[in-house]
Design a protein that fits this description.
alpha/beta, Aldehyde Dehydrogenase, Chain A, domain 1, 2 domains, seven-stranded mixed beta sheet, six-stranded mixed beta sheet, 15 helices, 24 strands
Length: 480
């Protein structure tokens, strides 16, 4: 499917607007121009924030049943047009059409969960008479929306990660301004289209397209913004924290995810799950499998099976249902991954398969014998590269898993319940998947990490907590 190049509009305060200056959106597969979006200015961002001030009051006054209706209607709209949504996800980003179809389906699920959680945003009664002298007091607390939320979203899940911010924000009664990644803005605009079609009041949602260097600082530093929800890289996250001022911050900043495979594991399952976890979306996945620690007794067998399965991966045209993996988001990113692999090999790593680049495409790559001082062993690769590392036992695997400054999710393959529980208690991560790779998530679970992997938690119920505040109400009764 080819998108007509007609120039998309951005949504500011309920109005779809265009600008003379535009950003080109290109397919990373062949650099083909897909469409253009407005290049917003500082003045546009200030207008956006002023509109959101109005929207915050409107959103807070929306009854819960109306929030539920709107979010469900937006989900219905996406479901009715899901092939169009999947096509745009695949064209503007790295995902194959099969991966994009799954993302569109997950976005629908994310919105439906948001609608359901809106009805469960409850408070509770408080026993004021637990304190002597307060016997004549009764009360409760309830949760209220915080106001305006700024959502800064990445390219790797250009629809569902936006929905993970927009759905809970609206469910909680907030206004939200979305600044999508400049390379993948079309999916976020399509999500806004769904909410406009659903009858969301003007000013509650804005999606502003533009370069971060032009409009980012205003969004981050403006005192009217009460929360920043950011998904992206560590350096950008640290910069936001330095500039943001006194406001709530939720961040998911990536990882260098470990998977442990013990001798009693189902090797076939471990290989299949870990290969998929390593190369989904060309490895541009915060949960992607990066380091696999294999107990020495099964290292040779696991390595052979893993390399064989990797070499069966079909890399090519994203729009073909036969393709397993497409390109990285830009050729620049592929070159970055290429340099990380070359550095590791120069320091003694052994290339088992892959290691070849063709434009923005980088072959699924497997390394072993990787020195621990390599950047690829310590940092987030965000590309289709995985490291196979032998370990003597679970203790060594845990120690090595915890040796980096990230801690989002981990996986372990074992049939031993005691070893599984030891890993659960000792691994420094926000989530651990037993007999699955690190790359597993449902949209309802709390999602986030420790150390440099971020602050706070997403996942609809938990995002709703982050996007609201408790207000205490206490009645002092007369003695009658």
């Amino acid at each position: 499917m080819t998108v007509q190049i007609r120039g998309q509009k951005m949504l500011i305060g309920g109005q779809w607007v265009e600008r003379d200056q535009v950003i080109e959106v290109r397919d990373p597969q062949d650099n083909r121009l897909i469409d253009t979006v407005p290049a917003a200015t500082k003045e546009d961002m200030l207008e956006c924030i002023e509109a959101a001030k109005v929207g915050a009051k409107i959103a807070a006054g929306m009854p819960v049943h109306e929030r539920i209706r709107v979010i469900h209607a937006a989900a219905d709209y996406i479901e009715e047009h899901k092939e169009r949504y999947a096509s745009i996800i695949s064209q503007e980003g790295s995902k194959t059409i099969r991966e994009a179809q799954k993302e569109a389906a997950r976005c629908i699920q994310t919105l439906r969960i948001s609608a359901e959680e809106a009805r469960r945003l409850n408070g509770e009664t408080l026993s004021f008479d637990q304190m002597p002298g307060s016997e004549n007091r009764v009360g409760y607390y309830y949760r209220f929306p915080i106001g305006i939320i700024a959502a800064i979203t990445p390219f790797n899940d250009p629809l569902n990660l936006v929905a993970h911010k927009v759905g809970p924000a609206i469910a909680a009664g907030n206004a939200i301004i979305v600044k999508p990644a400049s390379v993948t803005p079309l999916s976020a605009l399509l999500l806004a289209e769904a909410f406009s079609s659903a009858g969301l009041p003007p000013n509650v949602l804005s999606v502003i397209t533009g370069h971060g260097r032009e409009i980012g600082d205003i969004l981050v530093t403006h005192p009217a913004i009460r929360m920043i929800s950011f998904t992206g890289g560590l350096e950008a996250g640290e910069e936001i924290v330095r500039k943001a001022g006194l406001k709530k911050i939720g961040m998911e900043l990536g990882s260098n995810s470990p998977v442990i495979v013990l001798e009693d594991a189902d090797l076939g399952d471990a290989v299949e799950s870990s290969v998929s976890g390593a190369f989904w979306a060309a490895g541009q996945n915060c949960l992607g499998v990066q380091r696999i620690y294999i107990q020495a007794g099964i290292m040779a067998e696991f390595q052979k099976a893993f390399v064989t399965r990797t070499e069966q991966y079909h890399v090519g045209d994203k729009q073909s249902v036969l393709t397993d993996m497409g390109p990285l988001i830009t050729e620049k990113e592929a070159i970055r991954v290429e340099k990380m692999v070359e550095e590791a090999i120069e320091k003694g790593a052994i290339l088992l398969t892959g290691g070849k680049r063709n434009g923005a495409f980088y072959a699924p790559t497997v390394l072993t014998n990787v020195p621990e001082n390599c950047s690829i062993a310590k940092e987030e690769i965000f590309g289709p590269v995985v490291l196979l590392c032998p370990v003597a036992d679970l203790d060594e695997a845990i120690q090595k898993s915890n040796s980096v400054e990230y801690g989002l999710q981990a996986g372990i393959f074992t049939k031993n319940i005691e070893k599984a529980h030891k890993a659960i208690s000792k691994l420094d991560v926000g989530g651990i998947m037993i007999n699955d790779s690190s790359d597993y998530r449902i949209d309802a679970m709390p999602f986030g990490g420790v150390k440099n992997s971020g602050l706070g938690r997403e996942g609809i119920k938990f995002a709703l907590q982050e996007m609201t505040e408790p207000k205490v109400v206490c009645f002092k009764l007369s003695d009658q």
